[in-house]
Amino acid sequence: MSRPIARPIAQRTEPENTPTTARSGPVSTRKDCAARASEYITAARVHHLARELADRDWELLGFVADCRLATGKQLAMRFWLAQREHDPAGARAARRALKRLRDWRVLDTLPGRARGGVRGGSATLIYRVGVAGAKLLALRGVHQRRLGTPGERLIDHTLAATELAVQLHTAHARGELELIGIQHEPKSWRFFTGAMGARRLIRPDLFVRIGAGRHEDRWFVEIDRGSEHPGTIAAKAERYLAHLRSGAEQHEHSVYPRVVWTVPEAHRARQLGAVLDRQPDELQALFSICLAEETVAFLASEARS
Length: 305
Description:
Layout: H1 30-36, H2 43-52, H3 55-67, E1 70-71, H4 72-79, H5 88-103, E2 107-114, E3 125-129, H6 131-139, H7 152-173, E4 179-184, E5 190-193, E6 199-202, E7 206-212, E8 215-223, H8 230-246, H9 248-253, E9 258-263, H10 266-276, H11 281-284, E10 287-291, H12 295-304
Parallel strand pairs: 8-9, 9-10
Antiparallel strand pairs: 1-3, 2-3, 4-7, 5-6, 7-8
Helix pairs in contact: 4-5, 4-7, 8-10
C-alpha cells in the first residue's frame, strides 16, 4: 500500500479529549463498600456517590462509557501504570479502586467472562458501566445506553479498540506522541449524503487526532480481527470513497482524515492489501495497513514525518 500523501490538517485546533492525569481520592474501607452495594440505586444514593467520586473515578467512568468494555488490566494501565508498567503500588491501587467502583455499582463486570485466564484475578475481568454509573453520567448530561449481553465476537472487537486507545494514552503519557483527541463508536461515525440524496454512513472504530508540531494528523481507524469477508472490506472501502467524494468532512474540517486498517497478523495484511489495491487510485493514498501491535509506533512515526 502506498502511504498517504498529505497531512490531514494544516493548523492545530483545541483538544477535544486531551488525556489528563487526575489524582485519585482516598479508597474507602471494605465496610463502606459493602454498605453502598445495592441492586436498587436511589436518587439520594446517586447524589451521595457523585460527591464521593474522585476526579480519577469520573475520568475512568467516562473512559469505560466511551469504550463500552475494558479489562481490569487495560484500566490499570490507562489510569495507574502508564508512566511505569511494572509498579506494584500502582497495580494495588488499581485493584482497590476497581473493587470499590464495582461494589458501588459504578462499574459492573460481564458475568462469567475474563480475558487472560481465570487465575489473573481482577485484571482479567471485563468491566462496563454499572447501574449507578449510568445514573452518575446522566447527572452530567451523558445518557449512556447500557450494553446488553454481548457475544464473543463483539467482546473481542470492542476490547481490541479499547486496547488501541489505552496504548495511545500510554504513549502520550510517556511523551512518545501527542494525543489530542480520540473518539469511539458511535461518536466516530460520519453521516453524509450519497447519490440521489440517500443518507449514508461510515462507521470507523475510532477517530484519532495526533499532534504533529504546529499541525495535527487525523485518522479513521478500522480494527480488523480477521473475521470479515473480503467483500465486506471492499464495501467498506466503497463507503469511504463515497464519503470522500461527498465533501462533507472537507466542508466541516477543510481536510479528509487518512484511514489505517489494523490487522492481527501479516497474512491478514496481505489479504486486505489485495482487496484495497483494487480500489480507485484516490483511495490508494488514503489507506494504510499495519499490524495491531505496530499501530501506535506507525502513527507516531507519521506524526514526526
